[in-house]
């Protein structure tokens, strides 16, 4: 199975900060990488597909990049509604696997 | 509006069974592969299973293979997860979601992620 490793596991940031979350795959997954946002008690929300494709309705401050084994989710200017947990997930091959999550908290 | 609504969760004893349902609306259900994803209390997301649009192809995580069965009834726009021989470690919120993977000579190379999610249904396995 392909292992997905996110870093950091958590971070504290202020409104307006630029935030970067990284995701590393245990083998090359080309660009078959999706990013989700999850708020407590809610279902995940798809933010980025195909490593860099912005899902319809998602603010442009969210940006995904990378290919192969190393990927990045960047939030250019953190907003109050962005405090949540973020997950990466590979769909290069089954079984689909998620990263362990990165919790973005208010500083 | 595309919507998914899970039901069927509850409290079950270890070794017991439960069937989850996921009712779909607002999109062409039969054209969409469907996935189940679970989240244990305080933990991350774990993908469980996927089924093709026509229902003929399925895939399971190792942790549930042989105990869980995914199926669908396209005439009812409903996805199912039959869970047998339940264990304490199956305790989780179970989400259904569109997509996740597609079958084309294997479950691989799917760009679009899981776009639409249900609100989740809680399964608790405990004596």
Question: What does this 3D model show about the protein?
Answer:
The complex is a heterodimer of chains A (107) and B (127). Chain A has 107 residues and is mostly beta strands. Chain A is built from no helices and eleven strands. In chain A, strands 2, 4, 5, 6, 9, 10 and 11 form a seven-stranded mixed β-sheet that branches. Chain A has a four-stranded antiparallel β-sheet with strand order 1-3-8-7, with no helix packed on it. In chain A, a hairpin with a 2-residue loop joins strand 7 and strand 8. Chain B has 127 residues and is mainly β. Chain B is 0% helix and 44% strand. Chain B has no helices and ten strands. Chain B has a six-stranded mixed β-sheet, with no helix packed on it. A four-stranded antiparallel β-sheet of chain B has the order 1-3-8-7, with no helix packed on it. The mean pLDDT of chain B is 96. At the A-B interface, strand 4, strand 5 and strand 10 of A face strand 5 of B.
- Placed side by side, the strands forming the largest sheet of chain B appear as 2-10-9-4-5-6
User: What fraction of residues of chain B sit in β-strands?
Assistant: 35-45%
Coarse morphology of chain B: globular
Q: What average pLDDT do the residues of chain B reach?
A: 96
Number of strands of chain B: 10
State the assembly state of the protein chains.
heterodimer
Mind sketching the topology for me?
The complex is a heterodimer of chains A (107) and B (127).
Chain A: E1 4-7, E2 10-13, E3 19-25, E4 33-38, E5 45-49, E6 53-54, E7 62-67, E8 70-75, E9 85-90, E10 97-98, E11 102-106
Chain B: E1 3-7, E2 10-12, E3 18-25, E4 34-39, E5 45-51, E6 58-60, E7 68-73, E8 78-83, E9 92-98, E10 121-125
Parallel strand pairs in B: 2-10
Antiparallel strand pairs in B: 1-3, 3-8, 4-5, 4-9, 5-6, 7-8, 9-10
